[in-house]
Amino acid sequence: MRTTNLYAPTLRETPAEAEVRSHQLMLRAGMIRKAAGGLYTYLPLAWRTIKKIEQIIREEMDEAGGQEISMPIVQPAEIWQESGRWSVYGDEMFRVRDRHGRQFCLGPTHEEMVTTLVRDEVRSYKQLPLMLYQIQNKYRDEIRPRFGLMRGREFIMKDLYSFDKDEEGMNLSYQKMYDAYTRIYTRMGLDFRPVEADNGAIGGGHSHEFTVLAAAGESNIAYCDSCDYAASDEKAELNVIRALEEEAKPLEKVATPDAHTIELVAECLNLPLEKCIKAVAFQTDTDELVLAFVRGDHEVNDVKVINLIEGAIELRMADEAVIEAAGGCPGFMSPIGIKEGTRIVVDQTVMEMYNACAGANEKDMHYINVNPKRDFKDVVVADIRMVKAGDICPRCGGTIKMTRGIEAGQVFTLGTKYSKALGATFLDENGREQPMVMGCYGIGVGRTMAAAVEQNNDENGIIWPKAIAPFEVVVVPVNAKNEEQLQLAESIYAELKKAGVDVLLDDRKDRAGVKFKDADLIGYPLRITVGPKAVAEDVVELKIRRSGETVTAGKADAVQKALEILAGL
């Protein structure tokens, strides 16, 4: 490919709409263009990278036993209604009607579609295990699409679905995919971590997110500094923190005028936050009141809370009138005095506190000498707090640290959630009908590309890992109007192509500085410069984008030197 034939309209200025580095750089590097909020056109450079990512994915999916198919993007409402998820996705789902008034959706995911496909074809345990995958567009009407390809309304996803005869088989399929994902992100040259995660609306059992570490990531990742434990902040397991045992004192009510936050309470009573109990009130999508209590220096993890409530889909902050109807007082709450039958969830660490402070469910009043094991009745005790740096690792006792990352892929065990709902069964060895046991495994292809940029850039532009760079090498004649320079550049370009290198020749007649800036902005791993020295002194320069290191070689050795450098990248 020659730059004079390449459609890559680079920009010198950063578009005002672009907030994160990947969005800014992909716009500036002529890789993507916005069509509407959350909708982007991939230009040739980006599409080359997309295809390389897809090729790595395909190779690893095939190696792990996956078979590629292509399912419809437009899906009938009936199968979603059958699974019970037609209402779960809510406004995030693009819904359409055909000319006959029948309802369809643009697929945000394909669990229903693939399950109904398999249920109509697979009859016997002899046809299992089965792993089917596709790479295609998905559609989700994000309330606030942002950050370019990070959160869009239309995006490319690889989704694979496994079908097994039992849980043991599902776990084997899960491990195959976990290992395949590890190889995929390793081959792409990305710094990543598989972290334990919540399944969310997908449902099912356990899950890992494959998270590309980057400061701009939306995911908060907790990881141990002593072992390989890592989890999203929503999922991170936490040990009970046991306070030093004290002799329980009598419960006492005290005035705390205008102390409606936990910080003001602690200040008013001259107590450390870890001696106070914080309350957060939620309502579920069915309007049930849920009162959650954590230690004053901790935060409530609403994902953990909702996972304790069977059938609940989402939580919102509770209305004051609802709290008051249950006997509570906003800003001054505790489980003491709440009406019987109210759902109260208390963090396990709170139950280990002695002589603590908590609301008295009366304006401007709190209790002191609260001993939860003595004073809290009819409560659910569970781990419901958010992880924070300095917590103890639940696996090895090491220290938890926090970082940020971008979820680029996720693996789930689904169990029989969809097969039971949709009637996907098989006959086992004894002729008995059994539901298939499923897993699902997704990779955001465009999101992975954006994550790679977030992780690999500097003040000059993108620094592509070799495996997914749009071109591995760019050959730049300093003066393309100079016949000798251009011919030598052409010769090096042709030899690299013959050697199987993905190479671009920048044959534009622009100034050298313009071409060098574009090369750095776009992020080709290796730049070969053919200038006056190449003609006069037999010196060709090779610059490694990541390190900035420049090496020289003679004209006859330039291609071999380039191959050696590429082999080490």
Automatic annotation (TrEMBL):
InterPro entries reported for this sequence: aa-tRNA-synt_IIb, aa-tRNA-synth_II, aa-tRNA-synth_II/BPL/LPL, Anticodon-bd, Anticodon-bd_dom_sf, Pro-tRNA-ligase_IIa, Pro-tRNA-synth_IIa_bac-type, Pro-tRNA-Synthase_IIa_type1
Reactions performed catalytically: tRNA(Pro) + L-proline + ATP = L-prolyl-tRNA(Pro) + AMP + diphosphate
Recorded superkingdom: Bacteria
Principal subcellular localisation of the protein: cytoplasm
Compartment(s) where it occurs, according to its Swiss-Prot or TrEMBL record: Cytoplasm
The enzyme's E.C. designation: 6.1.1.15
Gene Ontology cellular component annotations, sorted alphabetically: cytosol
Function description: Catalyzes the attachment of proline to tRNA(Pro) in a two-step reaction: proline is first activated by ATP to form Pro-AMP and then transferred to the acceptor end of tRNA(Pro). As ProRS can inadvertently accommodate and process non-cognate amino acids such as alanine and cysteine, to avoid such errors it has two additional distinct editing activities against alanine. One activity is designated as 'pretransfer' editing and involves the tRNA(Pro)-independent hydrolysis of activated Ala-AMP.
Subunit structure: Homodimer.
Free-text comment on this protein's domains from its UniProt entry: Consists of three domains: the N-terminal catalytic domain, the editing domain and the C-terminal anticodon-binding domain.
Name under which the protein is recorded: Proline--tRNA ligase
Species of origin: Anaerovibrio slackiae
Originating gene: proS
